[in-house]
């Protein structure tokens, strides 16, 4: 009999699922938590699909735990509907680490690596249906070279592109030689895992070895690909962005980072509606491995020729009299472009404190100016968000993993675990409206006394005002903080014509009375 351990949790404080606040925990077996991250979130028909890693306890295995992967299906109210596990005594199974869950023809695809008990590594593409039943697993690049894949994307001709690293000079069974020649690589695959072409890349003089890898890849508007990663081919570690054509031939490459220190990896890349690209991560000014910060959130916008459109850094604030270097920590982990052209990012933040990590939401306009931020004050101090998407109701779904440390009162020991989380918000980051749009301090509106009908509305809605509220002004604000509608109102029934407003949630304010409400426009 096989036994699996998986701990799933949903963050609950001031979080909105389909306009409903909830507080739920999902624990299949207490004791050993999930061991990994979410590779991506797919939203389909108001259901959420997540992909991550976990530790499995399997009968008759030599090892106590084996590394496996899991798929999760969650409904619009946060209920866990189904899980699917993949684990095997003969091998460890690693998922691709970021944005590698793809929806195609009402089926889900993802990728990863198998590490067999002989320590030989191969790669795989997995295909499952929307009920999370595994349809097939196809291995590719099955040979003795050292390799790892990290990300997969669609291509323009209904195939897949997978990125990672490869080193043909050694394999895991023989161990590391004195000099390695590790190169970034791209594989173009069919859905069945057949390799259509394979390319590897290096960037310096290879006489003394080389090292580079790709962690993310996306398709471009001209049928090529953008890959991001890291290289130390020049003697120092640099982040990189590479553009290839449809056959993987390099068109240009750009290198980024502080030459004195090792910057964290770029964490995400997206294509924008204006045929440019956004790359995000963090910029460091100190010794990354020595604990000397700050880390500033870092966003670069690049055009299709590799030219920088804008380059922005975003600093967290400090609190108290603690060492400023250890309180400023802001790493952008995921970015998405919204339907209105704004950018939403999820960051890991210290929020001005020395210890702990919290999810922090940033909403920016298309030029990178901050519209508002929201920190999620979770009960446990260590949360690592890594994916954000815009949902069908113009809110956000945020996924990641968290580190937990609990005291086992029965056995009198501390227990640590990692768990996958899914956080669902409305378009303003939670179920309160941010009235003071500020990256430092926000004052949430906790009371919404105004009632409208119909709500949701199409081109108009109505509000009934009592005596004493004559000759006032009604204002409607968008989620970017812009005033989009204004008209005079008085006692009795008032008709508000919101013609031409984009679908989404809006804040309504009676200015003189200082009263608030929320309206959804379809």
Notes on the structure:
It is a single chain. With 522 residues, the protein is mostly beta strands. Helix content is 1%, strand content 53%. It has one helix and 41 strands. The strands form ten sheets. Strands 15, 16, 17, 18, 19, 20, 21 and 22 form an eight-stranded mixed beta sheet that branches. The protein starts with a strand and ends with a strand. Mean pLDDT is 79; it is low at 1-36 and 431-442.
Mean pLDDT value? 79
Low-confidence stretches: 1-36, 431-442
N-C termini distance: 51 Å
Radius of gyration: 25 Å
Strand content: over 45%
Helix content: under 10%
Instruction: Work out the helix count.
Output: 1
Strand segment tally:
41
Report a brief summary of the structure.
The chain is mainly β. The strands form ten sheets. Strands 15, 16, 17, 18, 19, 20, 21 and 22 form an eight-stranded mixed β-sheet that branches. Strands 1, 6, 7, 8 and 9 form a five-stranded antiparallel β-sheet that branches. The model is unreliable at 1-36 and 431-442 (pLDDT under 50).
List the helices and strands and how they pair.
Layout: E1 3-4, E2 7-10, E3 16-17, E4 20-21, E5 25-27, E6 38-44, E7 47-57, E8 66-74, E9 80-86, E10 91-95, E11 102-104, E12 107-116, E13 121-129, E14 134-140, E15 146-154, E16 160-167, E17 181-189, E18 195-201, E19 210-219, E20 225-231, E21 238-244, E22 250-256, E23 268-271, E24 277-284, E25 295-302, E26 308-314, H1 324-327, E27 330-337, E28 343-349, E29 358-364, E30 370-375, E31 382-390, E32 396-408, E33 413-425, E34 433-434, E35 444-445, E36 460-465, E37 472-477, E38 483-489, E39 492-497, E40 504-510, E41 515-521
Parallel strand pairs: 2-33, 17-19
Antiparallel strand pairs: 1-7, 2-5, 3-4, 6-7, 7-8, 8-9, 10-12, 11-12, 12-13, 13-14, 15-16, 16-17, 17-18, 19-20, 20-21, 21-22, 23-24, 24-25, 25-26, 27-28, 28-29, 29-30, 31-32, 32-33, 34-35, 36-39, 37-38, 37-40, 40-41
